């Protein structure tokens, strides 16, 4: 141990540009270190102890990064809050996480103020001007920029956007180790992909930092000495521009990003120099095989894929793995194990779909305040997030769908993701969601909701054309019985589809049959 970890690197080379805000402002490592140190001194003066938590409602950029760096060296839990939530949803997280301080950026002043109810007024701090909040400078002015005494490794506590009920905080026991050693251990994740430490590596943050993977990959890249370049909101051409401008080497993306990049006109795609790209990693949703193939053809062998959960464990597919096993999300990490079981929790043979259970060596977690949910998702020391998939003979994992999204029609299990992947390839389709709606005879019938590509007119002709394109590619029993059109799909910025918003109106007034 001893060469990596942001705090160590910043002391060794304070002049290194460690982060670039969305407005293009670069921040030196030494300045970020001093800001994080002052924050620790200020919050300790408020009485914060190791094991306490803080919440931040901040946009992508260095304000949130400083909160993260402070918490991780003071032994606190840091919860970045989803800035799309409403006041009451924010208040739930602030209360449930037992936050001892709440930081709000002025951009989110309105909902942040509503969300601050559970916390004492003197524990509310603002980046910028938020009425009724103390400026962050109240905490940090006059505090030393030096490393605090008694440093101990903290953790992030993300709230999962669960498919049912309130979100749950995924809380890991604190290790009590030195923060730099802890940060160095974190770099194992990126080293799995072959990512190397140090400059001139640059990591592009494409999605909101309140997501587990975005924090993990961005934070870990920083601890490896990479420069972080933040995007405020994702835009396909802007991403290409930033990749060329900053010589980006790695990033974390979702398949929706790929689809939108591929929709750019050929001349736009061709005008940026992307020769610096080395590890463009994607996850979070199944990627249609033709989309992934088109990205590999365009960017070369730098597109890596993985499957994992906030709770721990996962798989990895290198570009070479994927080409040999098209559609796979990869093989289990060296420290992880994959188990596929049937409804009786018995292991199933290769090629047979079942519920995916994972475990990771040395990783334990609980859903904060919900031992029942923690226990319900466990099988001995494995856990599941309810996804369905199968392992092939070589141990490569293929995803079918989420159990909660599976359609049971006439007794047959139908996986919407498979249908979505086929429809998504149609040039007139920008986005698609498939789910079950009530059917008196069959229990459920298949409904597709399509967001047409820009300039394409929705209507019966388009629906016919989309269905006709499935001929010979998808069994007739899997075809949608009807297609509705929508101007914009309800997706979170990380690409996660809010399928409930689409599905629920069709099930109003009925008990879900399955």
Automatic annotation (TrEMBL):
Any one Pfam family match given in the protein's UniProt record, by short name: AMP-binding_C
Keyword Ligase part of the UniProt annotation: yes
Annotated AMP-dependent synthetase/ligase domain residues: 7-361
Record EC number: 6.2.1.3
GO MF terms held by the record: long-chain fatty acid-CoA ligase activity; medium-chain fatty acid-CoA ligase activity
Keywords: Ligase
Keyword Ligase: yes
Name this protein carries in UniProt: Long-chain acyl-CoA synthetase
Organism: Thermocatellispora tengchongensis
């Amino acid at each position: 141990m001893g060469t990596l970890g942001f705090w160590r690197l910043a002391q060794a080379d304070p002049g290194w540009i460690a982060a670039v805000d969305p407005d293009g402002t670069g921040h030196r490592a030494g300045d970020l270190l001093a800001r994080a140190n002052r924050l620790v001194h200020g919050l300790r003066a408020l009485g914060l102890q190791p094991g306490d938590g803080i919440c931040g409602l901040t946009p992508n950029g260095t304000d949130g990064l400083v909160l993260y760096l402070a918490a991780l060296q003071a032994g606190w839990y840091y919860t970045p809050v989803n800035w799309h939530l409403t006041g009451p949803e924010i208040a739930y997280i602030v209360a449930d996480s037992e936050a001892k301080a709440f930081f709000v950026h002025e951009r989110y002043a309105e909902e942040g103020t509503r969300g601050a109810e559970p916390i004492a007024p003197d524990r509310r701090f603002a980046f910028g001007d938020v009425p009724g909040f103390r400026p962050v400078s109240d905490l940090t002015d006059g505090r030393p920029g030096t490393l605090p005494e008694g440093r101990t490794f903290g953790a992030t506590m993300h709230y999962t956007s669960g498919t049912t009920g309130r979100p749950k905080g995924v809380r890991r026991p604190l290790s009590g180790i030195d923060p730099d050693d802890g940060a160095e251990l974190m770099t194992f994740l990126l080293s799995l992909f072959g990512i190397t430490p140090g400059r001139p590596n640059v990591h592009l943050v494409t999605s909101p930092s309140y997501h587990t993977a975005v924090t993990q990959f961005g934070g870990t890249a920083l601890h490896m000495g990479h420069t972080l370049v933040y995007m405020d909101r994702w835009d396909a051409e802007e991403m290409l521009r930033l990749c060329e401008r900053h010589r980006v080497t790695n990033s974390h993306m979702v398949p929706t990003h790929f689809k939108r990049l591929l929709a750019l006109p050929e001349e736009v795609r061709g005008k940026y120099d992307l020769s610096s790209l080395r590890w463009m990693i994607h996850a979070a949703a199944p990627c249609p095989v033709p989309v992934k193939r088109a990205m590999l053809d365009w960017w070369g062998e730098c597109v890596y894929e993985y499957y994992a959960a906030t709770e721990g464990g996962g798989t990895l597919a290198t570009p070479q793995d994927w080409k040999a096993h098209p559609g796979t999300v990869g093989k289990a990490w060296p420290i992880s194990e994959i188990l596929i079981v049937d409804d009786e929790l018995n292991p199933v043979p290769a090629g047979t779909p079942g519920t995916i259970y994972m475990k990771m060596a040395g990783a334990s977690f609980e859903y904060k305040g919900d031992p029942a949910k923690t226990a319900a998702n466990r099988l001995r020391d494995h856990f599941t997030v309810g996804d369905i998939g199968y392992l092939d003979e070589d141990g490569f994992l293929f995803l079918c769908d989420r159990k909660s999204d599976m359609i049971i029609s006439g007794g047959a299990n139908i996986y919407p993701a498979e249908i979505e992947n086929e429809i998504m390839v149609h040039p007139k389709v920008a986005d698609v969601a498939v789910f079950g709606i009530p059917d008196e005879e069959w229990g459920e019938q298949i409904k597709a909701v399509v967001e047409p590509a820009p300039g394409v007119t929705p209507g019966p002709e388009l629906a016919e054309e989309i269905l006709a394109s499935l001929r010979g590619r998808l069994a007739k029993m899997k075809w949608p019985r009807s297609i509705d059109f929508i101007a914009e799909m309800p997706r979170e910025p990380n690409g996660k589809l809010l399928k409930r918003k689409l599905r629920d109106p069709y099930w109003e007034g009925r008990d879900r049959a399955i």
